[in-house]
Amino acid sequence: MKQLKWIVALIVAILCNGGTITNAKAQTTDEMQIRQLLAQQTQAWNKGNIAAYMQGYWQSDSLVFIGKSGTKYGYKNTLENYKKSYPDTASMGKLHFEILQIKPLSFEYYFVIGTWYLQRSIGDLQGSFTLLLRKIKNNWVIIADHSS
Q: Is residue 58 part of a domain?
C-alpha cells in the first residue's frame, strides 16, 4: 500500500511539473521553438510587416485576442485590428519582448508570460502579455493572446 501511494505521488508530481522528468529534451526543444517564434514575430514587426508577424498566430476563427479594446475572435479580426491600430511604421515602432516565464502545460500546450515594449517616435508604449500556445501539425502557434 505504501508503494502504491508513493507511485501515485510520483505521477502527480510529474503531471504537475508538466512531465519535466520524462520529456525534458522535448520541452527544451519546444521552448526553443517558442522563443524562435517570438523572435521571428519581433523581426517581422520591426520590418513593418504585420502579415508576417501574424504568422505566429493560429489561422482559425477560434483564435482569441484580448486587448485594450476588448476580446476579438478569429485570425482575420485580429489581423484587421492590428492593421487599424498600427497603420504605419511610425505607429508600429520597434518591438521588444521580454519573456518572463515559459511553462509547459502538456505535450501540446505552453503558457508564456512576458512584457512588450514599443519604442516609437510618436511616444513609446509598453505592457504585459500572456500567451497560450498549441502545437498544431508540429508547429507552435499562439491560440490565445491577452496583451495589455
A: yes
